[in-house]
From TrEMBL:
Keyword DNA-binding: yes
Official protein name in the record: Response regulator transcription factor
Domain of life per record: Bacteria
PANTHER family recorded: DNA-BINDING TRANSCRIPTIONAL ACTIVATOR DEVR_DOSR
Cross-referenced PROSITE patterns: HTH_LUXR_2 (PS50043), RESPONSE_REGULATORY (PS50110)
Domain HTH luxR-type, residue spans: 149-214
Residue ranges of domain Response regulatory in the record: 4-120
Keyword annotations: DNA-binding, Transcription, Transcription regulation
């Protein structure tokens, strides 16, 4: 079934790539544009059946303002949010704004298409696990930022805290390894352990979580070596 679509994303290249993939699958893609000023206006003017709205920061204030505007002026347009693994409250916020679904931005095109078809049919398009997490979060609100930061910090070893600080400073694996005097493979392992313990999928998400919960402020009070320590811990944790 052909769907009249509009793709809107923070990054124009992402929007154009998704639009091209959907066109190849037979859909009519009306436009692909960045959600800067006027993006919601464009959706309202063109009135597609489904708008795929990409966002890199679903937790940011106002992230779903375009959804509110679209649903206010074109309630018949189904809006499907495409973004990173969000906090449960991020999913709740998307639906509260009027979105018909939320799909992870690393979802395969087949999954995105299925979500589009569900949204067009008036169904909620969201993975059961994400939806369950949203309800659990609403029923059991998380601790305050300071408390949450303290709790997360307790999950990390001193070495992992140092890795987190370096990740937040934008250091890649090579710089982390050089700064800590360890092998790149060891640095990579430390980074993966930090991501796993914080339950996030990327370094960017780890840095954002650390800043949002106050973990980063607490972490920077931990003594960090001033520079590389050649010969120390070669290739070991």
């Amino acid at each position: 079934m052909v769907v009249r679509l509009m793709v809107v994303d923070d990054h124009r290249l992402h929007a154009e790539a998704l639009a091209s993939a959907l066109k190849l699958r037979g859909h009519r893609v009306l436009a692909a544009a960045a959600p800067a000023a006027g993006a919601a206006d464009l959706v309202v003017q063109r009135a597609p059946e489904v708008c795929v709205l990409g966002t890199a920061a679903p937790a940011e204030p106002g992230a779903f303002d375009p959804v509110v505007r679209i649903k206010r002026d074109r309630p018949q347009v189904a809006v499907l949010v495409l973004g990173p693994v969000p906090s449960p409250r991020g999913i709740a916020a998307a639906f509260a704004a009027g979105a018909s679904g939320y799909v992870r931005h690393d979802e395969r095109i087949e999954g995105v298409e299925r979500a589009i078809m569900k949204a067009r049919a008036g169904e909620a398009a969201v993975a059961p696990a994400l939806l369950a997490g949203a309800f659990a979060d609403l029923l059991n609100p998380p601790a305050k930022a300071d408390d949450e930061g303290h709790r997360l910090l307790q999950l990390l070893t001193p070495r992992e805290v140092e890795v987190l600080v370096r990740v937040a400073d934008g250091e890649d694996t090579r710089l982390i390894a050089a700064g800590m005097g360890i092998a790149p493979s060891t640095a990579r392992t430390h980074v993966q352990r930090v991501l796993m313990k914080l339950d996030v999928g990327s370094r960017l998400e780890a840095a954002a979580l650390a800043a949002r919960t106050g973990l980063l402020d607490r972490a920077t009070t931990v003594a960090i070596p001033a520079g590389p320590r050649p010969g120390s811990e070669p290739g070991s944790a």
